[in-house]
Amino acid sequence: MSVELPAPIARYFTADLDPNPQAIADCFSDRAIIRDKNQVHAGPDEIRQWKVDYSKKYIAISTPISVAQDRGRAVVTCHVEGNFPGSPVDLRFFFRVEGDLISELEITV
Length: 109
Known about the structure:
alpha+beta; about 50% strand
């Protein structure tokens, strides 16, 4: 099943597979935030470091399986598999997009 994602979100999932953490940071606006595991990462430097830290611990592949809208955010449900505790799991990625960049991402179970 193929899910049609808005371009900035599709770019995020492509960048997530790139070993260069700058690829992820480039998907976000300068004032963007990520909420993941009860932590907030703000701005390009923290977002880049978030990707570096995660990649040192785990390998994970996210496959989008559905997309919906909720209060101005795109909600992408992904099947995520990897070498992390609890794998595989379906996670929800709540994206807020401004123009061609992501301004907010929240990742939840």
